[in-house]
Design a protein that fits this description.
The complex is a heterodimer of chains A (273) and B (307). Chain A has 273 residues and is mainly alpha-helical. Chain A has 11 helices and 2 strands; from the N terminus they run H-H-H-H-H-E-E-H-H-H-H-H-H. Chain A folds into 2 domains: 157 residues, no CATH class; 68 residues, no CATH class. In chain A, strands 1-2 form a two-stranded antiparallel ribbon. In chain A, helix 2 runs parallel beside helix 11 and helix 5 packs antiparallel against helix 6. In chain B, 45% of the residues are buried. In chain B, helix 5 packs parallel to helix 6. The mean pLDDT of chain B is 86. In chain B, a hairpin with a 5-residue loop joins strand 1 and strand 2. Chains A and B meet through helix 8 and helix 10 of A and helix 2, helix 3, helix 4 and helix 5 of B.
Chain lengths: 273, 307
């Protein structure tokens, strides 16, 4: 039952976005977010949507997968829309009833907000989370933040922690399954009773799991010492990341995205926020 | 082997080690242990749980430091106070160690990344790491699994990956601390074959800590740890011929050795000792032929698969 948990949203593939350097993809994500937030009027929003759609197509991630990923955020989107509809003041109200005033500007503003959130989710998804494996992401972050080591930020240690966590998630899930079966064999029941009862039933699962996790941590630490691990001191990496033409093209495309958005903001007419 | 003429590679002199117990007392595990290990040997270490086998192993690569006594490796005294941190890592590079639980020694989420881990820690050039990783994968027959994630592998495969991670560091000695104990028979077989190959083809000194007597007879030399020290030390034949002494410290001998031993004890004449089933059969069949009708003896002489 716990076997089918997937870590992150990584969707394996071989599209240009999959193949790009993880460091570049992290930068692209930041550029994309900046671009989306800079979009101010209707036309720059249209451009942002077109750009995002292009990214989705390039990534070859099924639109269905992306939409499914947005499901949990539907309330956030709805909440944002409602707030914007009721709280934005304009010139002439469309609806006036007791304390509720809805203005045309409010509706437009809410619509643009929804577009912005959806674009953000889809765009950052296809640039980073759907196309980058968690381990590549960790690796990319470590290398990108490498310079921060100079000001004593333990970048390497954080990335090592992440790697080990990712490595042990399947192992611990398997173990949880085993312990649950063992407790079931002794008469424990996990799916009946009230919520507090069910939570209480998990204690006999959590305790052995923690004990074994600590034991594993201890074993792993010794094994790592035996393999000469000494933190970041004098460490090299097998895979070196090199910027490929593809990475430069992507960077240029995203820079152009921001530039065009700014230009449209300045010159195009229409409703703006 | 004429070990007398060679200089030992690893040598322990009067090594003592004790753990502190919770009540503050000292629990002596090893007492005045002296032992010589020569390059290229395949040693099996036997002993009951808590006899100090693992402690002995951990002393050799400086995970533990002895209370007293000296340990020299390749002529360097690793117990001397002048050991720098770099020296410690140098020792660990030379003396690799593979542990019991295959899950708890793999660090990375991809097989080849894990094998590279040790080399990365040593600061080896990236292209050289790549070469060593490919070679190590080849040696343990795991090339096809290079991009797999460890949790997709069987116990025996994981353990082979752990071995590959060690051999990529180019050690001259590998200590296997009950590395076969958690495996199924097939995984055990895979790992034992890999260990034997490392010793035979690559000349790596192997110290294999085990509870399995059939694995112990694969070694050139068997060391039995009991009573805080080396209790027996010799070829498997020598060690397993002292059936009574082994049993007195709570250890078994291989089943066929036990069978022959008991037959001899009960007065059956003309028996030597035996380590494996074929050897035992060779001695027993002629005797059986004398005592039971020819037809049945022929039946018994048919090749019976014995594991």
């Amino acid at each position: 039952m716990l076997k089918d948990i997937t870590i992150g949203q990584y969707f394996p593939g071989s599209s240009p976005l999959h193949r790009a350097d993880p460091r570049v993809k992290i930068i692209l994500t930041v550029m994309y977010i900046v671009g989306i937030f800079m979009a101010k009027n209707v036309w720059s929003f249209v451009f942002a949507v077109v750009f995002t759609a292009a990214l989705v197509i390039i990534s070859r991630i099924p639109a269905k997968t992306i939409l499914r990923g947005m499901k949990p955020l539907i309330y956030v989107i709805a909440f944002t829309a409602i707030i914007n509809i009721f709280w934005t003041k304009g010139e002439k109200p469309l609806v006036e009833w007791k304390f509720i005033h809805i203005y045309a500007e409010g509706l437009q503003f809410a619509a643009l907000m929804i577009v912005r959130i959806i674009a953000l989710l889809a765009g950052t998804g296809v640039v980073l989370t759907y196309t980058t494996s968690p381990i590549a992401l960790t690796d990319g972050l470590e290398r990108l933040l490498g310079p921060l080591k100079k000001i004593k930020i333990p970048v390497h240690e954080f990335s090592m922690m992440m790697t080990i966590a990712l490595r042990f998630i399947p192992t611990l899930i398997e173990e949880t399954d085993k312990i649950m079966s063992a407790q079931k064999a002794r008469g424990a029941s996990f799916d009946s009773g009230s919520l507090p009862q069910r939570a209480k039933a998990l204690i006999p699962v959590m305790i052995p799991l923690f004990v074994s996790a600590f034991r594993r941590a201890d074993d792993l630490a010794v094994a790592m010492e035996c393999r000469c691990y000494r933190g970041d001191v004098g460490r090299t990496r097998m895979t070196e990341l090199h910027m490929k033409p593809l990475d430069w093209i992507l960077l240029a495309a995203f820079a152009a995205f921001i530039a065009v958005t700014v230009v449209i903001n300045i010159f195009a007419p229409g409703f703006s926020i | 082997m004429n070990n007398e003429q060679k200089t030992p590679y690893i040598s322990l002199r009067d090594v003592c080690f004790s753990y502190d117990t919770e009540s503050g007392e000292k629990n002596e595990v090893l007492k005045n242990v002296s032992l010589d290990i020569y390059k290229g040997e395949f040693i099996a270490v036997l002993g009951r749980n808590g006899s100090g086998k693992s402690t002995l192993a951990k002393l050799l690569n400086m995970i533990l430091v002895p209370d007293s006594g000296t340990i020299t490796i390749g002529g360097h005294d690793i117990t001397s106070p002048d050991m720098t941190e770099d020296d410690v890592y140098e020792v660990r590079r030379h003396i690799g160690m593979v542990f019991q639980n295959p899950d708890n020694q793999l660090v990375a989420t991809v097989v080849e990344e894990d094998i590279a881990f040790g080399c990365e820690n040593l600061g080896v050039e990236p292209s050289e790491i790549r070469r060593r990783v490919d070679e190590a994968l080849e040696t343990v027959n795991m090339t096809a699994f290079a991009r797999h994630s460890p949790h997709q592998l069987s116990g025996g495969q994981k353990q082979r990956v752990a071995i590959a991670g060690i051999i990529a560091m180019l050690p001259d000695t590998i200590i296997f601390d009950e590395s076969t104990a958690m495996l199924d028979p097939q995984g055990r077989d895979e790992v034992m074959q890999t260990i034997a190959r490392l010793n035979r083809d690559m000349g790596i000194t192997v110290m294999h800590i085990t509870h399995n007597m059939n694995e112990a007879i694969m070694a050139d030399r068997v060391i039995v740890i009991a009573d805080c020290g080396v209790y027996l030390d010799g070829t498997p034949r020598e060690v397993f011929s002292s059936v009574e002494r082994l049993q007195s410290v709570g250890l078994d001998v291989p089943q066929v050795t036990d069978l022959i031993y008991r037959l001899k004890k009960n007065g059956v004449k003309g028996l030597d000792d035996a380590l494996d089933p074929d050897e035992a059969a060779a001695q027993l069949l002629p005797l059986l032929a004398k005592t039971i009708p020819v037809k049945d003896a022929a039946l018994g002489a048919r090749k019976i698969p014995v594991s």
